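Hi V.,

Quick status before I head out on leave. The structure for the redesign project is tokenized and pasted below; the design run finished overnight.
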């Protein structure tokens, strides 16, 4: 029995050269046990014949809003309701623009507008189109509504350009579908508070102390918890990534801001996961005006410690709460992480050696060790989104114990 046995995937295919890859997507989905219905745009039919998808899916391929169906039903509504997952691969700039602005002028755009199923896009287009501000703004709108994406990848494109815009490989797209359709709502009814990103400690009106945290790990945890049914609040320092859909956002700048928000929010939570990287020091005195360079003379700054937010949250910990911290280390990983676990009253700490390839800052992967009282679990290199689910799985084990 395949991982998608009993699941229905509606696949939208739009007019791009990557449409040929969608044939393999259908084949792989079927091998996983999914029932697949394909909706093609008029332009997609110029790249792949509908009969190809009908043969691979063993279902009629739909491409005309007004075509009379074999049995009577409002086709776009029927397919929208059947979908456990709505996948569009390739997703052109055109379909993304339509979705972002609620345009429904063909079967695909009409059906995806009507569906309540999770939507996954696999964008594919010229690099210039992908990086254009209009496309990026449409992407931000869609992500804010909970639409998910995979890719695009970088490399040589069909047009001859080199850069981002190539559709993800079918094996990766289907793997993401399996991941999404295998999610259980095991956090439903729980309140989860996640912190992410760096803090900034000002030196003067234009300069500040910060660190290299991108926020990707915390955002991945917030997204994973929301998809598993939790009510999620994400407290984030300044980052350049879009917030996950369906998550309550709270923005902070300094470590003092973070402490204030956590002090207010923590008592109402069931699970608190502190993936943020607050600055450990701040300037004792912040200059009221921009500090000028004084020739070749050096500059001496006096730094003082910032509040220990994790320790403060640990002191507020209530009986039924589960607290998780993070330890980004460069040496003595397990020992240093264990000390933080004990000193900050944590139930689990996620430790990673940021000197290892693939586990540092501002990358999409991580290598972690999950440390609880009396147990250490080493995890291999994996995406931060996969690690997010591994962390949540372990949190649930702790709460059931």
């Amino acid at each position: 029995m395949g991982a998608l046995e009993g699941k229905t995937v509606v696949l939208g295919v739009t007019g791009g050269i990557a449409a040929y890859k969608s044939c393999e997507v259908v084949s792989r989905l079927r091998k996983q046990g999914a029932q697949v219905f394909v909706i093609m745009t008029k332009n997609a039919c110029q790249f792949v014949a509908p009969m190809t998808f009908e043969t691979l899916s063993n279902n009629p391929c739909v491409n005309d809003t007004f075509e009379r169906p074999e049995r009577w039903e409002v086709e776009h509504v029927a397919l929208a309701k059947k979908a456990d997952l709505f996948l569009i691969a390739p997703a052109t700039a055109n379909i993304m623009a339509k979705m972002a602005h609620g345009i429904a002028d063909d079967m695909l755009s009409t059906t995806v507008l009507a569906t309540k199923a999770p939507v996954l896009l696999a964008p594919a287009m010229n690099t210039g189109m992908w990086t254009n501000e209009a496309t990026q703004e449409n992407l931000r709108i869609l992500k804010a509504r909970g639409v998910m994406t995979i890719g695009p990848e970088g490399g040589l494109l069909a047009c001859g350009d080199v850069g981002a815009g190539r559709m993800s490989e079918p094996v990766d797209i289907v793997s993401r579908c399996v991941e999404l359709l295998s999610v259980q709502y095991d956090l439903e009814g729980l309140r989860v508070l996640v912190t992410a990103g760096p803090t900034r400690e000002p030196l003067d009106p234009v300069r500040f102390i910060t660190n290299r945290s991108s926020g990707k790990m915390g955002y991945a945890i917030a997204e994973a918890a929301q998809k598993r049914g939790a009510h999620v609040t994400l407290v984030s320092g300044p980052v350049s990534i879009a917030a996950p859909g369906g998550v309550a956002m709270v923005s902070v700048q300094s470590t003092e801001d973070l402490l204030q928000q956590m002090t207010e929010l923590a008592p109402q939570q069931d699970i608190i996961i502190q993936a943020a990287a607050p600055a450990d020091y701040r300037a004792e005195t912040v200059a009221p005006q921009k500090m000028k360079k004084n020739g070749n003379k050096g500059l001496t700054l006096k730094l003082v410690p910032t509040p220990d937010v994790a320790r403060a949250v640990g002191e507020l910990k209530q009986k039924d709460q589960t607290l998780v911290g993070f330890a980004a280390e460069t040496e003595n990983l397990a020992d240093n992480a264990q000390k933080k676990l004990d000193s900050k009253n944590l139930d689990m700490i996620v430790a990673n050696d940021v000197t290892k390839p693939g586990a540092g800052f501002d990358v999409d992967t991580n290598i972690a060790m999950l440390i609880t009282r009396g147990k250490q679990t080493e995890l291999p290199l994996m995406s931060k989104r996969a690690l997010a689910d591994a962390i949540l799985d372990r949190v649930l084990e702790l709460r059931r114990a």
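Above is the designed sequence. The domain at 8-181 is CATH 3.40.50.1950 (Rossmann fold).

G. will cover questions while I'm gone.

Best,
W.
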